[in-house]
Specification:
about 60 residues; alpha+beta; 3-stranded antiparallel sheet; globular
Length: about 60
């Protein structure tokens, strides 16, 4: 099992999902995407949660 998770920027997640950055934030708020906040003004998305939506659009 991996000790580290790959993190991506909001803009990258939006591009991969073909949605707006605001939609990515909404997906984080609803729990559909997993995110980390390394600083109070920074949000990073866990790439595997984006891949889960891509692989199974019913999660969207």
């Amino acid at each position: 099992m991996k000790d580290t998770q790959e993190l991506i920027h909001i803009r990258t997640a939006a591009r991969l999902l073909d949605v707006s950055k605001r939609t990515v934030y909404r997906l984080v708020e609803s729990g559909r995407l997993k995110a980390l906040r390394p600083t109070p003004h920074t949000t990073r998305i866990i790439k595997s949660s984006v891949e889960a939506i891509i692989n199974d659009p019913s999660n969207f």
